[in-house]
Amino acid sequence: MNPARESGVALVTGAGKRVGAVIARRLHAAGYDLALHYRRSAGEAEALAAELERQRGGSVLLVQAELAETAHLPGLVSRVLDRYGRLDALVNNASAFYPTPLGEASVAQWNELFASNAQAPFFLAQAAMPALRAARGAIVNLVDIYAERPLAGHPLYCMAKAALLAMTRSLALELAPEVRVNGVAPGAVLWPSDGKSYDDQQALLARTPLGRAGSPDDVAGAVLWLLRDAPFVTGQILHVDGGRTLSV
Ligand SMILES: NC(=O)c1ccc[n+]([C@@H]2O[C@H](COP(=O)([O-])OP(=O)(O)OC[C@H]3O[C@@H](n4cnc5c(N)ncnc54)[C@H](OP(=O)(O)O)[C@@H]3O)[C@@H](O)[C@H]2O)c1
Question: Which backbone phi and psi does 181 adopt, to 5 degrees?
């Protein structure tokens, strides 16, 4: 463990790029040593690890894994413990997201969407439980406002995120008093990598009281707050959505 460490060790899944990478940078800047998980984004994850290592040597471990391979998840946690000897924070950020129109949805899509959005977060939390308890640590799950108000054409994604929301509350109960478990539910903070039309973006922003999209930094700030600065908060879902869930 790095002597400069102030906040502990955090495992962030899906941290190679996009929101996960911004969360990783924010936690690292706050003093966390990191286990950066990625699946296919090896180049981005390696570049991010190198950037953070330049800032603080010995502060990043890269872990590659397909999270759908549930049997490998305890091994992933073990690698973090072998390296750092402790785990203070688990951030379940990795996620598959795509439409599954009713009438066309397949079992393979069900399995893929539930694997990253619900199954892996649960089994990672279970594997990490002893270490998190010992560290009096915390879990933050990246949920979605669509867990509570479904996005048309995306039933399986919404159901998987709803399972993650239920898991957040359930594990908050199971892991108390040692471990706090909370969720962050972003609104639009980064358009999907396969794009969203300009008109769709404008329609969505028109339904957002703050009148703009958020940024990954907004989400990262909420994650850090829940992990580090909210010792009496557990089982909560923090909406980071510009007020969008205030009106339908
Ligand atoms: N972006 C938004 O505006 C928004 C809005 C609401 C909620 N959220 C939530 O916030 C989180 C981050 O959003 P994002 O847009 O940055 O996510 P993203 O780019 O869609 O996905 C993040 C990473 O998840 C990893 N992943 C997906 N399936 C995996 C699997 N089976 N095994 C291992 N890794 C897997 C991928 O890693 P590799 O690239 O390494 O394969 C991917 O880069 C997600 O949980 C998302 O649902 C985001």
Answer: -135, 120
